[in-house]
Amino acid sequence: MNAEVIVPITVFAMIFGIVYITLRHKERLTMIKSGVNASSLENKGNILGSLKWGMVFVGIGLGIIIGKIIAFSTTMEEEAAFFSMICLFGGLALMIYYIIANRLK
Fold first, then answer.
1. How many C-alpha atoms does 58 have within 13 Å on its Cβ side?
2. What is the pLDDT of residues 57-67, one digit of tens each?
3. Are 14 and 61 in the same domain?
4. Whether residue 51 sits in one domain with residue 36
5. How many domains does the chain have?
6. Cβ pair 62, 86 in contact under 8 A
7. Could you tell me which residues come within 8 angstroms of residue 12 by beta carbon, excluding any fewer than 6 positions away?
8. Predicted confidence (pLDDT) per residue in 13-70, tens digit
9. pTM of the shown model
10. Contact 92, 63 (CB under 8 A)
């Protein structure tokens, strides 16, 4: 990518991040001043959400690796091999996540 594209995107992302963090900090201070329980502000995290995204990214990584193997060993076009394997393994990861999440609930 050219610098003409990367610089404006980076500047926009930095401005957005600074505004978001500032507003979040002000909101938290206001909640504490008004007497809201501070334990509600703690970030408890979402274990199942982390599991889902971890499985999706592992599936995409496997898809890229298998796509490269298929493109190298067959006459299939590289773009088609990558795209099909990424979709296949990403979807497979989501289906496995669904089974795991149902068992945990």
1. 11
2. 999 999 999 99
3. no
4. no
5. 2
6. no
7. none
8. 999 999 989 988 888 888 888 887 766 666 655 678 888 889 999 999 999 999 999 9
9. 0.56
10. no
